[in-house]
Design a protein that fits this description.
The chain has one domain. It contains 13 helices and two strands, in the order ααββααααααααααα. Helix 1 (2-12) packs across helix 6 and helix 6 packs antiparallel against helix 13. By secondary structure, it is mainly alpha-helical. It starts with a helix and ends with a helix. The mean pLDDT is 87. The chain has a two-stranded antiparallel sheet with strand order 1-2. The longest helix is centred in the middle third of the chain and has 34 residues, at 109-142.
Length: 271
């Protein structure tokens, strides 16, 4: 509790914490509320123009139980906002030497590292709460006749999203301890996530590429658009009923490995 209190006081006292969380919350509110209005054209022989406009709302974006998959999949594109916040705060510990001062003042290296893990956990929980509350509100508005059981069906997608965000938090923490500079860490994490590992995956091929570090977390929640656009029926593609528990376990495994990796780096670094 002492470490939680110390870390929370550090976070809440910094205006950038509230600015970053406000930005993330605003993105999630806009995402969830406006995604249903995304339109596309489909062939319609009964229409004079031969086509008509449909939108995600009409395709069932907000319908239970699929709303949990739909929202968490899209939210995955914004998970870098809390990760970059964590990078900023941890790198500041090095830049302003507060890490060194904390150790001098009696905090052990283990306690300092645990406090950073607590920060990663706080950011992950807040991220899930923001997306969960927004999705829950839209589910209530668009599913008036749903029972209580309907709301809980597929809600475990929030667990998958938590695992996805927590993994990225620990990856960000690991790289920040490794490079100490926020700018370098952000560049490295973006290059690896979007360029290096995808290219490595193409070179290696399936199924080995499924075991690359970020692959399980990024592939755990599958895209919902083939189901929403009825492409699964048209092309006889079976849409998954839930997320991959195999990828969930791999994600947690890599999260633990990154956690120990960050601890290993910190223990061997000079103050």
């Amino acid at each position: 509790m002492k470490l939680l209190k110390i870390e929370w006081l550090k976070l809440k006292g910094h205006p950038f914490f509230w600015i970053g969380l406000g930005l993330y919350a605003a993105c999630m509110i806009l995402l969830v509320s406006k995604a249903g209005g995304i339109e596309w054209r489909v062939d319609d022989p009964d229409n004079e123009a031969g086509q008509k406009l449909l939108n995600f709302g009409e395709a069932g974006f907000y319908k239970l139980p699929y709303i949990w998959q739909n929202v968490t999949y899209l939210a995955g594109y914004f998970k870098f906002i809390p990760a970059f916040l964590l990078i900023f705060f941890v790198s500041n510990e090095y830049q302003y030497r507060t890490y060194r001062q904390n150790i001098i003042d009696g905090l052990s290296i283990g306690e300092f590292y645990t406090s950073k893990l607590i920060s990663a956990f706080i950011f992950s929980v807040i991220s899930v709460l923001i997306i969960g509350v927004n999705a829950g509100i839209m589910a209530i508005l668009y599913n008036e006749s749903a029972s209580a059981a309907d709301y809980f069906q597929n809600m475990d997608y929030l667990l998958a999203y938590f695992a996805e965000v927590l993994f990225l938090m620990l990856l960000a923490l690991f790289l920040t301890f490794l490079f100490k500079r926020s700018t370098i860490t952000v560049i490295i994490i973006l290059l690896y996530y979007f360029i290096v590992e995808p290219l490595a995956g193409l070179a290696i091929g399936d199924p080995i590429s499924d075991y690359l570090p970020t692959r399980p977390s990024r592939e755990m929640i599958t895209q919902p658009f083939t189901r929403m656009l009825r492409l699964d029926v048209a092309f006889k593609i079976k849409s998954p009923e839930t997320f991959s528990y195999h990828f969930l376990l791999l994600t947690f495994l890599y999260t633990v490995i990154l956690g120990f990796g960050g601890w290993w780096i910190l223990k061997r670094r000079d103050l």
